[in-house]
Fold this sequence. Notes:
The complex is a heterodimer of chains A (158) and B (118).
Chain A: H1 2-19, H2 24-44, H3 57-83, E1 92-97, H4 103-115, E2 119-125, E3 128-133, H5 136-143, H6 146-155
Antiparallel strand pairs in A: 1-3, 2-3
Helix pairs in contact in A: 1-2, 3-6, 4-6
Chain B: H1 2-27, H2 31-57, H3 61-90, E1 99-100
Amino acid sequence: MFRKLGLAVALFALWLLLSGIYQPLLISFGIASSLLVAWIAHRMDVADHEGFPIHLGVKAVTYWPWLVWEIIKANIDVALIIIKPNLQITPTMFYSNASQKTEVGQVTYANSITLTPGTISVGVADGTVEVHALTTSSADEVIGGRMDKRVCQMEGDN
Amino acid sequence: MFLDVLSWILILSGGVFGVISAIGVLRMPDIYTRMHAASIADTIALGLMCGGMMLQAGWTIVTIKLILILVFIFFASPTTTHALAKAAIAGGIKPILHEDRRKKVSDKTSNKGKGEKS
């Protein structure tokens, strides 16, 4: 129940941010539509811990800036590889352990790998991610497990 | 004035990264390596450009919409990239590899992945 109310509140906040017109009639439409969507999500059974992972809360908020910093570093690496005249790429494919307990955690990990330039997750199954990396050093970076650990930390004890 | 300069720096460097990404897409040898180059465009180039535009817009509803664009692309782009890579593997396109470390992992993964390793 808490999760459904949270979904309705989040939807209404989004509506407020996007609307820009604050008259009683329109605001009541906004409330009605966000409640309707929350109810439909409840009926469809998609507002669960996967569809709306509100419980990650603060830990997810600290994860994002860390990930953005990793992405910036990886971007500069890949950009340098591209502009160097002799394309120094050493494409590698490998498996990496995804030691997260929940599926949300594993998806977060696989998506974080893909989002970082230089590594793409190609498949996920049974706690391993199949990764294609642009260089062996970016492959070593993923195998080192720093990101894996960080996602586990974000997942916490839920 | 200061904000204008900063926002121009952000937009221009975003543009530079976009051009580098395009060059990368042209230079890379196969589909998988090209996707690495393309992902520069939808992470840092997009982020820098949106950041610059946010500084131009100031504290308005436009900034909020730009943030939402960033968030949606942040979630959607890895999903599409993954779908593309998976489709390429399933379609039988073999990546050009310098090193294939997939065999080094124990036989935990050898009983599945039909069509992934041919």
